[in-house]
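A student in our group prepared the protein record below, which I am reviewing. What it holds is a sequence and that sequence's fold in token form. My question to you is simply how this chain folds and whether the tokens agree. Do not assume that whoever made the record got everything right. I have pasted the whole thing underneath without changing anything:
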Amino acid sequence: MTDVNKRLDELGIKLPDPPDPLGAYKPAVVSGYLLFISGQLPLIDGNLLFKGKVGAQVTAEEAYQAARVSSINALAVIGKEIGDFSKVKKIVKITGYVSSANGFNSQAAVVNGASDFFFEIFGEAGRHARVAVGVSELPADSPVEIEVIAEIEV
């Protein structure tokens, strides 16, 4: 597996402090060898990168970037929860929710922003199963929300 911190440096990515939960839940839960990351929004410094529905107020390209930022936030949560990225054995599954305008049906292309990011960071260990779902609304008028399940060493 790649050295995550080195890879982040190479890509010029600085992990943010994980965003605070927007509700009554934990950002991450460990169960056995699995780490479940609650849905992450594309927040930068507490503000949404974009707002609105993909295919209306937000383009597919912008939503791809939003999925990437959401995944960066998920990685920050992983780091805070387990402290050492070398404990991540595999990204097992990603679920991507895309707030979609009527007629928008390229959710898979949007969620590629998350999938591509995890492959860039973890290499083959970043390849995962995935669901890309179109929804009518997301919290705070976010265009994208990404949830992650990772296998970890305990």
